Amino acid sequence: MKFLNYYFSQTPANKRSSASIAYLASLDYLEQADSLVSQAIIQELLDQRSHLKLIASENFSSLAVQLAMGNLLTDKYAEGVPHRRFYAGCDNVDQIEDAAVSELKKIFHCEHAYVQPHSGADANLVAYWAILLYRIQNQEVQRLGKKTLDELTPDEYESVRQLLVNQKVMGMSLNSGGHLTHGYRHNCSSKMMHSVCYDVDQKTGLIDYAALQEAVMREKPLILVAGFSSYPRLINFAKMREIADSVGATLLVDMAHFAGLVAGKVMQGEYNPLPFAHIVTSTTHKTLRGPRGGLVMCTKEYAPTVDKGCPMILGGPLPHVMAAKAIAFKEANTLDFQNYAHQIVKNSKALAAALMKLGVKLITSGTDNHLLVMNVLESFALNGKQAEWALREAGCTVNRNSIPFDQNGAWFTSGVRMGTPAITTLGMKEQEMQELASIIVALLQATKPDPQDRSKAVIEPQSLAAARSRVAALLSQFPLYPEILLG
User: Fold this and answer.
1) Active-site residue identified among 254, 331, 388, 406
2) What residues does each domain of the chain span?
3) Class of domain 335-477
4) pLDDT tens for residues 55-73?
């Protein structure tokens, strides 16, 4: 009981929290069960405390969210949807899932919500197949004069299957900022459907809606995907819906990256996808600050097919993660969360402005959301892998990222993506963004490519030491989970 005993010895009775006690007790118990696992968890906490988390797709969830996942709910099978399960004994899971769905509807004002997907990729697969079933399979079954798929003959079923796998999906290309699941050649989204992509404008890095309209009219996709993984600007979803409607396409919005900005009422009007999209998917762990997982929201006509996510795509849902989602959604439906979401964008804009003032080339010359992408090849004569490595050495965790029309490809890249959700959770504001930009630029200016290894770089030792010291000083003012005392 070393962690708990240390906590009690260092914390006055009137300052102790039940969350801290529960968390430390779990670490003590894990230490007895498997010290390797326990030590890896502790080391991860220490690593995250000693590095600035600047990965745009990561955040810090609350202790309540984390603790909700560590319990016997993980032992329960619950295929189906609430009150229509394929297993008995799901009453408590029904209550939890209903609560998560209800909270989600309150936040986003959607007609239907599905909280079972294990990840954003799973959520997108559920959405794709829900569209295919609703738009293609159901209509074809009716055309054949049958009521259900099970009534089809083997030949009829094969004809329907062939229609399903040859439909066209159109999403933003990976190089332009789209996600793997939006039709990337090596992802199953482009293997189960005919994938065509749209790009941003080569000069501005922005979506050209007129050019997109022309491409959609030419390709006539069944599904038009809006959303991104590394696009630093807002998307006009009213225009996207107009473009989709012009060819009768279903508009699918993947808001995995910016769901928290929608929940926090930063993205409103034509920049809020919910009033315009037929189906919206998301992760729950990025700007939404919940557990790792996914969700799907849709208009009522797609609800029956979305609810077939299991057995269509998913196996049994994860009740313990749905419990954590319910807590995270409740946290997101508060004024405090709205203030947090607005601060994310303030910080992102401040960081972008400070970097550009220091001469850094940013894709689209700035940001309107939670992320920004540096062109490190043009700014520092480094590839993305080298810049990522150098920043990690200095205590800044980022990820390399392709830039539009990237000459270095998807592995080495020419860019680095950074985001402000996690450091905003720590409490940092615009003043800290000035210091952060200064640290990043000073370090990368003192970094040169390693002539022997395209993945590594050579950093001037004094500059590296200075960067590490400045990162440590910044983090000391904003400790991660300060109530968790390890001794």
Assistant:
1) 254
2) 72-332, 335-477
3) alpha beta
4) 999 999 999 999 999 999 9
